[in-house]
Design a protein that fits this description.
Blueprint: H1 2-14, H2 16-32, H3 38-61, H4 65-70, H5 76-108, H6 113-170, H7 173-216
Helix pairs in contact: 1-5, 3-5, 3-6, 5-6, 5-7, 6-7
């Protein structure tokens, strides 16, 4: 597994110019933006780095690369486990980096304490969304390949966003926001535990599906 992690890390390093550009864009947004842009920055960085995990699947499959990988002393279960570990590493790492970066700017520009507290309370939601996206996207990409997988993954994401938008338009979004704030204020720990438990169960199901798909694949 160590060799697979090194391989994916090398692929990530090869995209250094691209991610450096992203980092500069984030810095610019922080400099000219307000506290309200904090959520966008976290979701942008976390989601962008998470999507790179799907790109590694495309690299592995290119030009019969998967058959070549399986010729090494690496079994299919190890390959799937490595992808999920690498996905957690990238998602969690980019999420923490974006939070720390934003907190530094909060300190520099002396942002009001209330805005910082709201930022800290809402930030775990962005990590959860990235993990959910990867949780359903990894099996889809393994099953249908990169091209169809991207269409399906982002199609599901778009449908979910559209459905959420319609739901908020139909219902009283103000009441929902107030309810969420009450929960975070009164029992933030239980909310985080529930979110973590949901992600663990969701990823466990996703891992099982991905492993079954990989076992049945022919190269």
């Amino acid at each position: 597994m160590k060799a697979l992690l090194i391989k994916d890390w090398k692929l990530l390093k090869n995209q250094g110019g691209y991610f450096s550009t992203v980092f500069l864009i984030v810095i610019m947004i922080m400099c000219i933006g307000s506290a309200d842009t904090a959520g966008f920055i976290i979701s942008y960085m976390t989601f962008l780095f998470s999507v790179f995990v799907l790109s590694t699947l495309s690299y592995d499959s290119y030009d019969n690369g998967m058959a070549f990988l399986m010729s090494f002393p690496v079994d299919r279960k190890t390959y799937i486990a490595e992808k999920y570990i690498f996905a957690i590493f990238l998602s969690l790492g980019s999420w923490l980096a974006s939070i720390l970066l934003r907190l530094v700017f909060f300190f520099i520009f002396q942002t009001p304490e209330g805005d910082v507290t709201e930022f800290i309370y809402s930030s775990p939601m962005f990590l959860m969304m990235a993990l959910i996206f990867l949780g359903y996207s990894l099996p889809i990409h393994l099953k249908y390949g990169s091209e169809k997988g991207n269409i399906l993954s982002f199609g599901i994401l778009g449908a979910a966003c559209f459905g959420t938008f319609l739901f908020l338009r139909i219902t009283d979004s103000t009441e929902l926001i107030r309810l969420f704030q009450n929960i975070t204020d009164k029992d933030f720990g239980s909310l985080m535990a529930g979110m973590a438990g949901f992600c663990i169960i969701f990823w466990g199901i996703s891992y099982g599906i991905s492993l079954r798909i990989m076992v049945k694949k022919e190269f």
